[in-house]
Write a structure and sequence with these properties.
Elements: H1 4-18, E1 28-30, E2 39-41, H2 43-51, H3 55-69, H4 81-84, E3 90-96, E4 100-105, H5 107-119, E5 133-137, H6 149-167, E6 171-175, H7 183-195, H8 218-234, H9 236-251, H10 254-277, H11 295-304, E7 309-311, E8 314-317, E9 331-334, H12 342-356, E10 361-367, H13 371-383, E11 392-398, E12 401-402, H14 419-437, H15 443-463, E13 471-472, H16 475-478, H17 486-505, H18 521-530, H19 533-543, H20 547-566, H21 575-599
Parallel strand pairs: 5-6, 5-10, 10-11, 12-13
Antiparallel strand pairs: 1-2, 2-4, 3-4, 7-8, 8-9
Helix pairs in contact: 1-3, 2-3, 5-18, 6-19, 7-8, 7-9, 8-9, 9-10, 12-13, 14-15, 17-20, 17-21, 18-20, 19-20, 20-21
The chain binds arginine.
């Protein structure tokens, strides 16, 4: 559906043209002075120089035309009584100095527009990204290491971006890109060998089949890695052993490869559990290991075509550019000992994706401390012609999750907090709050609702911030039911659902209810806000940030609650007026629920 701004713009552009000016001057925006008008056009100012006239003169001429001639073109709406009436677009058109056009819409026009919105499955949102293929690289967990708060942001922001871009029409492939290769794997294998030298994985003469059931648990793996990492820092021989184990895994030693597969299987099953709980899902569970085999060919090609050259024994691609304000070091492809690095696997992954998926763009979500890595990788990928000139490569670097003291969030004993424990902590708090409120819920229901509300709290707190900003992990603030929080949105949704339920129980039909022209300022404000859903989502898609969508949903909730507090809805005596309110509520609900779905969470029936 065409946005309301575009519809208004068509009218204003026509008026400019009829008055003898360029139609392109008729650009309309939402008013930045809502106390004066609803929309504004600053085109007279832009045109003053070209036409050699004072802007106010142009504005007045255009205003005069708008006042006399323009009527609504509600042709979009189908068969709806309110929508069919050929109502005037503007209730008020004012030219004010130095040359603004201040515009206020009629109640009828706004009602006709949102009546059409109410019939649209997508609440008026267009699909500008149709035909675009995007790979979204998010999550990025490391095998055998627990997920921590840093991985939380990648998962939460990535999942929401995936949903938003899909809603905008793009074909998105979400790839988890696991850290499943390299020294950490060798460290874990080495520590396991020290602890269990009798395991068949370490017996070179073993010819039987390796155990079907895992010999270790995730909890054990998570304890093994930090222990091994600490030892390797103090003990040279241990480190050498771990490097040898890494080589064995990578070169396909039978026992070590089997152990690695077992580590992968155990770790992935656990990761999946946590991501399921977060309502985060991936189309591809690929990782660094998947491109291991294509690295030698890629490196050969880079050497042969002289994209890469030797420097101090290492193989590098120079990526510095003349316009750089700070130094961008060369991208290292192979270390002097011939080992591939993080950048090497990322470049090979790009090659692989171009070959197998052929995306128009790739978007990566990691901590912003990896910014330099991605600058180097993207430049190297272009230089080595791994992508097409028009392939878009973007890195979204997000800030650190901090505690209330402004320092990276830590557990009480100073360790890295496990993501699962954080979820548990929030859910426990939430459960208490909900039990205080709704007395009718059973214990099991309370636990379910608490989990849903916790997820909303956690995700909204993250998404409503600009990704690049650090954010403070404050369970107390997250779980508040007021203010700019996830639970507040859910609370608003639950409130609307309850009113609609009661209306139905009283014999009313929500489906048959029709939107009516606003009867109060609060109702008109709510109606006007409802017109902006599609634009809010598309802005978020363009900016690759859910921030704008969050702000829209918060504003919508506020406008709804203001309307709710000053309007008697179910006790309204005029049935047609009451039905109008109900239709408005149903549309508000649809936008809020679609919106939070794009953020990656859902609302309960009660809370
Ligand atoms: N595993 C990495 C980490 O924990 C993140 C991977 C991000 N994706 C990528 N293609 N480099 O830091």
């Amino acid at each position: 559906m065409e946005t309301i701004i575009k519809q208004i713009e068509a009218n204003v552009a026509k008026a400019f043209e009829e008055a003898g000016y360029d139609a392109a001057l008729g650009t309309v925006t939402v008013s930045n002075r809502p106390d004066l008008c609803e929309f504004q056009c600053n085109g007279a100012m832009a045109g003053a120089k070209k036409y050699g006239k004072a802007p106010i003169v142009i504005a007045e001429e255009v205003a005069a035309r708008l006042k006399e001639s323009v009527t609504a073109d509600a042709a979009q709406a189908d068969g709806d009584a309110a929508a069919k009436t050929d109502s005037a677009v503007f209730a008020k058109v004012e030219a004010v100095k130095p040359g603004f056009l201040n515009l206020t819409l009629t109640e009828d026009y706004v009602a006709a527009y949102i009546a059409a919105l109410a019939k649209d499955k997508r609440c008026g949102a267009e699909e500008p990204y149709q035909g675009k293929k995007i790979v979204l690289d998010y999550g990025g967990p490391n095998i055998a290491k627990p997920l921590h708060v840093g991985h939380l942001r990648s998962a939460v922001i990535g999942e929401s971006l995936k949903r938003i871009l899909r809603f905008a029409g793009a074909e998105v492939t979400g790839d988890i890109h696991m850290g499943d290769w390299g020294l950490p794997m060798g460290l874990v294998a080495t520590e396991l060998r020290h602890r269990h030298p009798d395991w068949p994985y370490f017996d070179e003469s073993f010819t039987g089949s390796y155990p079907k059931e895992s010999l270790f648990t995730v909890a054990e793996l998570e304890e093994v890695y930090p222990a091994a990492s600490a030892k390797s820092k103090e003990d040279e021989a241990y480190k050498a052993e771990a490097m040898e184990a890494t080589r064995k895994i990578q070169d396909g030693d039978k026992g070590y490869r089997a152990l690695w597969r077992e580590i992968m299987r155990t770790s992935k099953a656990d990761l999946k559990k946590v991501y399921d709980r977060l309502h985060v899902s991936f189309d591809l569970w690929k990782g660094e290991a998947d491109v291991h085999e294509i690295i030698p060919g890629m490196v050969e090609e880079m050497k042969r075509r002289e994209y890469a050259h030797e420097s101090d024994g290492a193989l590098v691609i120079d990526v510095a550019e003349e316009t750089d304000k700070k130094e961008i070091p060369p991208c290292i492809i192979l270390k002097s000992d011939g080992a591939a690095l993080y950048a090497t696997t990322d470049l090979a992954t790009i090659e692989d994706r171009m070959k197998n998926i052929r995306p128009d763009g790739m978007i990566y979500l990691t901590d912003k401390r990896q910014e330099m890595h991605f600058v180097q990788v993207f430049r190297a990928a272009r230089k080595a012609r791994l992508v097409l000139p028009e392939t878009e490569l973007a890195h979204i670097g997000f800030g650190t999750v901090n505690g209330k003291d402004g320092k990276p969030y830590k557990t009480r004993d100073g360790g890295v907090p496990r993501l699962e424990n954080l979820l548990d902590e929030i859910a426990a708090r939430m459960q208490e709050r909900i039990a205080e409120g709704d007395r009718d819920l059973s214990e099991a229901e309370t636990a379910n609702v608490a989990e849903q509300v916790s997820l909303a709290a956690l995700k909204y707190a993250d998404l409503s911030n600009q990704p690049a900003k650090d954010y403070v992990f404050d369970p107390e603030k997250f779980t508040a039911f007021e203010g700019d929080t996830g639970p507040y949105l859910l609370y608003t949704i639950v409130r609307i659902k309850s009113i609609l339920r009661k209306y139905g129980e009283g014999g009313g039909s929500v489906k048959e209810a029709r939107i009516r022209p606003a009867g109060s300022a609060a109702e008109k404000t709510l109606q006007l806000t409802l017109t902006g859903f599609g634009e809010a989502v598309m802005r978020s898609a363009k900016e690759l940030s859910a921030h704008g969508l969050c702000a829209f949903l918060y504003a919508l909730s506020n406008d709804f609650n203001s309307f709710y507090h000053e309007t008697k809805i179910l006790t309204e005596e005029d049935e047609a007026v009451k039905a109008g309110y109900i239709a408005l509520l149903a549309l508000t609900l649809k936008e809020l629920e679609t919106g939070i779905g794009l953020l990656g969470f859902e609302a309960p029936e009660r809370m």
